[in-house]
Design goal:
The structure holds two protein chains of two kinds. Chain A is mainly alpha-helical. Chain A has 22 helices and two strands. In chain A, a hairpin with a 5-residue loop joins strand 1 and strand 2. In chain B, helix 1 packs antiparallel against helix 2, helix 4 runs antiparallel to helix 5 and helix 5 packs antiparallel against helix 6. The termini of chain B are far apart. Classes of the chains: A mainly alpha, B mainly alpha.
Chain lengths: 503, 161
């Protein structure tokens, strides 16, 4: 149950001009960044994290949360206006959003996406606030063996569910594991530093993130720019949202919200899957399924409600176990830790009122997103055609200072440069980045929980099987691995080849 | 040979490098509390990590990676691509940034960033001198003022002044 005393303290803590202004600023920046093709919400959050270092937690983190939520809606704007999704989750929105723009209903599509996003997000945040206290209690029963089993389960799920190739997911996760080894081991001995003092603390997480998600995007935009693409400003003179349309789409929004909430709670699945499921379910239940793909307002509503409803529950594994479910929550985890809020079962004990303040801030951000979207969505259409010789140098200027500001070290800028190159290569070769980032974040905790577990079991690995929760999670992990590999073999025809050889 | 197989070869070479480095770059002292279990030392986790990495690389090499059609189910899906030209272009941009790192503390933040911003703007198609000057000077100065005076980040001043 919710701790009402802490909830009330949190309410008082967040409802002040400074914190609310930062939430609003975050939402505004997020919507603007999300609306610009070529920029991503993850990039914006990675660049914004260093800027929040000097801010207190109840100013910095609400800003980042606002940025996250604004960015998720903002990504639907170029999807609707110029058929260029700003986020992976907005791909499903493109299917009907852009046809609506071509029919002169661009404004209605933007408003539909806004209402669906805000509603889905708001309802999922409420579910999260109600459930989090119970889940934190569950996490208190976890010791080192259980934590290790949870980490392994989450990593396997993320490596296998993300991207199109299990082998590439495994490669990415293992690479993240190897990167995390640089620095010191759990006993404080130097490891893979090659005598360099700059590497004793390992690779700084924020510069690495800025390289992977900001600089790599700049490289890709410069190297693969489509010089023939003409930038036309979309027409938004049509009618916007009305009460009859709202009544028509509300059942779709509520249904898709349910889908998003379920998907959000499972690490590794993420918004793109939720959006597609929300879209296809909306089509199945629609009275006019033939309109889908040609400009159906229910198509836009179904996709957007589902993808935003992932936001709240995706914070559940993050805040209870410290396991981020996707790249964006990985970056948020980094931000939480920088501000001294270490996720885990003691987070709500040690920082209860602060955490409830942040959660209430999330709810408030949805209303701000609704207001910002209604006021400026039409004006933002100019941003989708911003010239790249303005955009990309600006991103670079932000990126270098963001990387430098972490430790006032020029070495971190070099790290950003190198990981920008690596990130570019990963994008082009379709190696998923989520497993790398999440493994990098979790590996120290994973290593220490494994070592502590083996000390408890006196070196005997079978000790894990004597702990019911750990054994259950490891069994689930094995089942996921087997099912995923068999499914991949079926798709590639390997199983039929084996059968034909054995017959 | 497919690009995925080249990727696998590069990864295997990197993995072999890490395997060879493990005895020299990790501690063989057992972890505190693990006396008597030689297994639990600084090399334990690196061995697991590199083993998983090599499994992934070998798996990609043996299967050649899924085709875009197999991976997505879309008959018209484009194959992932990293051409030599794009790799060299990307390398060039990275080198530009490393040169920026090398001159950063000598030239100071504003001068070095102004040059970086100007070069990237020219590469991206900026042809107006006024636009170039405005972007290259104004934006770094604004960021400098914010980070030094508001965020308290001590950005380097030019050493030659």
């Amino acid at each position: 149950m919710i701790d009402y005393a802490l909830f009330y303290d949190g309410l008082l803590a967040i409802f002040n001009l400074q914190s609310l202004s930062m939430v609003l600023l975050g939402v505004l920046v997020g919507v603007v960044v999300g609306a610009i093709p070529g920029l991503t919400t993850t990039m914006a959050i990675a660049l914004a994290v260093p800027m929040t270092f000097f801010m207190p937690p109840l100013i910095g983190i609400p800003f980042l949360i606002g940025l996250y939520k604004g960015g998720m809606y903002g990504g639907s704007i170029p999807a609707i206006l110029i058929s260029t999704p700003g986020t992976g989750a907005a791909v499903a929105t493109t299917l009907d959003g852009y046809p609506m723009t071509l029919k002169g209903k661009g404004k209605l599509a933007l408003h539909t996406a806004l209402v669906a996003s805000a509603t889905g997000d708001l309802l999922s945040d409420i579910v999260f606030i109600v459930l989090i206290a119970q889940l934190v209690l569950l996490a208190k029963h976890f010791g080192p063996p259980e934590y290790f089993a949870v980490f392994i389960f989450a990593l396997v799920l993320i490596s296998m569910a993300t991207g199109t190739s299990i082998a590439k997911g495994l490669l990415s996760a293992a690479f993240g594991l190897m990167l995390s080894l640089v620095g010191t081991d759990t006993s404080g001995q130097w490891r893979f530093t090659f005598g360099q003092l700059d590497l004793v603390s390992g690779f700084a997480f924020v510069p690495l993130l800025i390289g992977l998600f900001a600089f790599s995007v700049v490289i890709e935009n410069i190297v693969h720019h489509d010089r023939d693409a003409a930038a036309r400003r979309p027409d938004l003179s049509g009618e916007g949202m009305s009460l009859p349309v709202l009544k028509r789409i509300m059942p779709t929004i509520l249904r898709s919200t349910g889908i998003g909430v379920l998907i959000g709670a499972i690490p590794g699945i993420g918004q793109p899957v939720a959006a597609m499921l929300g879209y296809t379910t909306a089509q199945r239940f629609s009275k006019h399924p033939e309109e889908f793909g040609k400009g159906s307002v229910e198509g836009v509503a179904g996709a957007e409600a589902a993808n935003n409803a992932v936001n709240g529950p995706s914070l559940i594994p993050l805040l209870t176990f410290g396991i981020p479910g996707d790249i964006v929550t990985s970056v948020l985890l980094g931000a939480f830790m920088v501000h001294g809020l270490r996720p885990g079962p003691d987070l709500f004990v040690d920082h209860g009122s602060t955490m409830y303040a942040i959660l209430i801030g999330m709810v408030v951000a949805n209303f701000m997103m609704l207001a910002v979207g209604l006021l400026i969505a039409g004006r933002i259409s100019r941003l989708v055609t911003l010239p790249r010789y303005v955009l990309l140098p600006s991103v670079m200027a932000f990126a270098v200072i963001g990387a430098y500001a972490v430790h006032n070290s020029v070495f971190d800028v070099a790290v950003m440069a190198v990981f920008g190159f690596i990130g570019y290569g990963m994008r082009r070769l379709e190696i998923p980045m989520a497993p790398l980032v999440i493994t990098l974040l979790l590996s120290h905790d994973m290593e220490s929980s494994l070592i502590r577990s083996l000390i408890i079991f006196r070196g005997d690995f079978t000790g894990f099987l004597e702990r019911p929760i750990a054994a259950g999670l490891l069994l689930l992990t094995a089942i996921v691995i087997v099912l995923t590999v068999v499914s991949a073999w079926r798709r590639s025809g390997t199983l039929s080849k084996i059968r034909s050889v054995s017959e | 040979m497919t690009q995925d197989r080249w990727l696998a070869l590069v990864c295997m070479a990197f993995g072999i490098f890490v395997i060879l480095a493990i005895p020299y770059q990790t501690s063989s002292t057992p972890m505190p509390g693990a006396r008597g279990f030689d297994l639990l030392n600084g090399a334990f986790f690196p061995k697991i990590a590199v083993a998983l990495f090599m499994i992934g690389a070998i798996w990609i090499f043996v299967t050649g990676g899924p085709s875009a059609k197999e991976a997505t189910g879309d008959e018209d899906a484009a194959e992932p691509s990293l051409s030599p030209v794009s790799l060299i272009s990307a390398g060039g941009l990275t080198l530009l940034l490393l040169v920026y790192v090398a001159v950063f503390e000598w030239a100071g933040y504003i001068v070095s960033t102004a040059l970086l911003v100007a070069i990237i703007a020219i590469v991206c198609g900026q042809r107006s001198i006024i636009g170039l000057l405005l972007g290259a000077v104004v934006f770094p100065v604004i960021l400098y003022l914010f980070f030094v005076n508001v965020a308290g980040v001590p950005l380097p001043q030019p050493e030659f002044l």
